[in-house]
Amino acid sequence: MKTMNYRKYSAYPAVPITGRTWPDKRLEAAPIWCSVDLRDGNQALPVPMSVEEKVVMFKLLVSVGFKEIEVGFPAASATEFAFVRRLVEEKLIPDDVTIQVLTQAREHLIRRSFEAISGAPNAIVHMYNSTSTLQRDVVFRKSREEIKVIAVEGTRLCRQLKEESGSSGIRFEYSPESFTGTELDYALEVCHAVMEEWGASAENRVILNLPSTVEMSLPNIYADRIEWFCRNIRDRDAAFISVHAHNDRGTAVATAELALLAGADRIEGALFGNGERCGNMDIVTMALNLFTQGVDPGLDFSDLPHIREVYSRCTRMDVHPRHPYAGDLVYTAFSGSHQDAISKGMKAHGDGLWDVPYLPIDPGDVGCSYEAIVRINSQSGKGGVAFVLEKDYGIQIPKWMQPDFAWEVQALADRTGEELSPERIHELFLDGYVRLRQPVALKKCTISWVDSEPLESGEAATLISAVVEMKGGELVFEARGNGPLDAFVKGFIEKSGLSFSVDEYAEHAIGHSSGAEAIAYIRIVCEDGRSACGAGVDSNISLASIRAIVSALNRLP
């Protein structure tokens, strides 16, 4: 077997920390959320959103409950600048929402960003410069001190422009970009310098965003970095610690969750994980993870289908069918054992705590339908098939009959190679049991009683008169029994010579109205060992039972 060249990579270094506290903590409250859909998510799109589409997305984010929204990089393009100005000039920003703009620590970009937010009641200027060892050495070719000077001078200009604007609603956020590739002591040194230059205090808190710009380690190591940083920062009350996790290793949600345990206050992310390369931390997933643990996420995802539709329309990006909570297939089950467990769990669930097998969240809580919880293909089991018929059509196939019909369903799915809709399953049941007319067909059947009190009468109190059509001609008979079914069986056996007995029986009404039909299920066993199941439907339960016998006779091998 070919071996991949793993030796060209090295393990990410551990953090020199002892007595870490985050493993013993629990998430008991939502963080401060900041959506970066309109900046990081937008710049990663093959076709960036237009101003109109960005307005639609902004309104969606507001309706979900975001109070901090990064609306763009206004110095990067005319479209970005125009969008921010439209939000401000048309007063589209609610009083309790703060917009955030991103800028590099470069003078002309910072000045342009302040022009964009002029007149905004509340805004965050998010400035960054890369501090990582690799970028210092390869991209910028600058020393640690020179990189720190860039951060300090940019902060000084931001403070100056805020003072010149006269706006008290402008706040400041700093990101040592590629924090995961930066020495911890140096990242802290730069952040201390920025805090000092801004004049950070408990009354004028700065946001220090420590991004996993490139996800490079296990989530627990990132958590160690955050705890180390929170332990060693001066004036912890003068800063909100924020994290911005990318998904290069596929663990951005875990990274953000563990960072919260480690002391972070704020989370930046995007709907459905949209963003550069492998995407940003998925706020939908993380928020609903909190929700399933009994924690108020502070965001409203009660109508996920609508959120997903607007997101896809504006970004032209699809949501993966296996996406947690929001995918088309996450509330479905194809395997038989899962289907059976879900069916039983849904029936047993009351009004208490949600506790249904395989469903960590009630689909109804996020605006999703129960219609597709169980879907049928060749891998489906008897429980799932029975669940579909009962839920959609009120047909409650008894357990002893479920394997018989499940075999029919699986055989059809195998032949077609397709998923079977509830409608097709229903038709298969009707055609395979209820509508069978060959080789036996019931042409006529009347029921009478020889006693005025038939329910209290003894043996042979019921009289059946029937005409049954078979390949060899018609069977015409009259027979007595202790009920219509018993009488019919006796008469048919006597006339046909086929000896069998009723092994199982069940019945119920289909629906609850006065005109509801009845359905009966029967399994017969012949003296020669053959057996078959049948089902019959009629407004009269006695006739439904007789039709079920005829159905079973038609299904004998």
Short note summarizing the structure:
The chain is of the alpha/beta class and 557 residues long. It is built from 17 helices and 14 strands. The strands form 3 sheets. An 8-stranded parallel β-barrel has the order 1-2-3-4-5-6-7-8, surrounded by 7 helices. A 3-stranded antiparallel β-sheet has the order 9-10-11, covered by helices on one side.
CATH topology of the largest domain: TIM Barrel
Shape: elongated
Low-confidence stretches: none
Q: What is the arithmetic mean of pLDDT?
A: 93
The class by helix and strand makeup works out as alpha/beta
Number of DSSP E strands: 14
Trace the largest sheet across and list its strands: 1-2-3-4-5-6-7-8
> Quick one: CATH class of the largest domain?
Alpha Beta
CATH architecture of the largest domain: Alpha-Beta Barrel
User: What Rg, in angstroms, do the CA atoms define?
Assistant: 35 Å
Beta strand %: 15-25%
Name the features:
3-stranded antiparallel beta sheet, 557 residues, TIM Barrel, Double Stranded RNA Binding Domain, 17 helices, 8-stranded parallel β-barrel, single chain, 38% helix, 3 domains, alpha/beta
Protein model, in words:
The chain has 557 residues and is α/β, with parallel strands linked by helices. The chain folds into 3 domains: 12-315, Alpha-Beta Barrel (TIM Barrel), CATH 3.20.20; 336-432, no CATH class; 441-554, Alpha-isopropylmalate synthase LeuA, regulatory domain (Double Stranded RNA Binding Domain), CATH 3.30.160. Helices cover 38% and strands 18% of the residues. The chain has helices at 37-43, 51-64, 78-89, 107-117, 133-140, 144-165, 184-198, 219-232, 252-261, 283-291, 304-315, 336-348, 382-393, 402-416, 422-434, 484-496, 541-554; strands at residues 32-35, 68-72, 98-104, 123-130, 170-177, 206-209, 239-244, 266-269, 441-449, 462-470, 473-481, 500-510, 517-526, 531-538. The longest helix has 22 residues, at 144-165.
